[in-house]
Design goal:
Layout: E1 24-36, H1 38-46, H2 54-67, H3 69-72, E2 81-94, E3 98-111, H4 116-134, E4 142-152, E5 159-160
Antiparallel strand pairs: 1-3, 1-4, 2-3, 4-5
Helix pairs in contact: 2-4
Length: about 160
């Protein structure tokens, strides 16, 4: 296992010094799922919820959250993001998983540190927004499987989650 970079020699949390790192193009993709009743998914797709367009609001929430990640995660560096996209796709109901919305966030920057936390934060905020907008009709929704799917750039290069 590699060294935990957010701990100093005494074991105290600190912000990593990225000053000596090279500026490279960096990208991260994160994914997550909101599992719900089939009737809830049908309402979302039909635009039938009184709070409005769930998918549009969740996309905007994800984008806004990515931009505010250092305000939420204490040791994250403020980054100038060059791209944030949040895609939300309905998944047909299955016996095993039920109905779901699949969330994918892609974040890019040209910088000295990666954007994994920004992508994960975008997915998390989009999922929470979906829950908030739909809880009146389905309190049993589950936010699941939020994870980094891939990253590119920096010293460690490319990484892809094995399926």
């Amino acid at each position: 296992m590699s060294e935990l970079t957010h701990l100093d020699a005494a074991g105290h949390a600190h912000m990593v010094d990225v000053g000596a790192k090279e500026v490279t193009q960096r990208e991260a993709v994160a994914r997550g799922t909101v599992v719900m009743q089939a009737s809830t998914l049908a309402l979302i797709v039909a635009g039938g919820l009184p709070k409005g367009d769930v998918l549009a609001v969740a996309r905007i929430a994800g984008i806004m959250a990515a931009k505010r990640t250092p305000d939420i995660v204490p040791l994250c560096h403020p980054l100038m993001l060059t791209h944030v996209a949040v895609e939300i796709t309905p998944a047909a109901p299955t016996q095993a998983a039920g109905a779901a919305l699949l969330i994918e966030a892609t974040v890019r920057t040209n910088g000295k540190t990666g954007v994994e936390m920004e992508a994960l934060t975008a997915v998390s905020a989009a999922a929470l927004t979906i829950y908030d907008m739909c809880k009146a009709v389905d309190r049993a929704m589950r936010i699941t499987d939020i994870r980094l799917a891939q990253k590119r750039g920096g010293k460690s290069g490319e990484w892809i989650l094995e399926a």
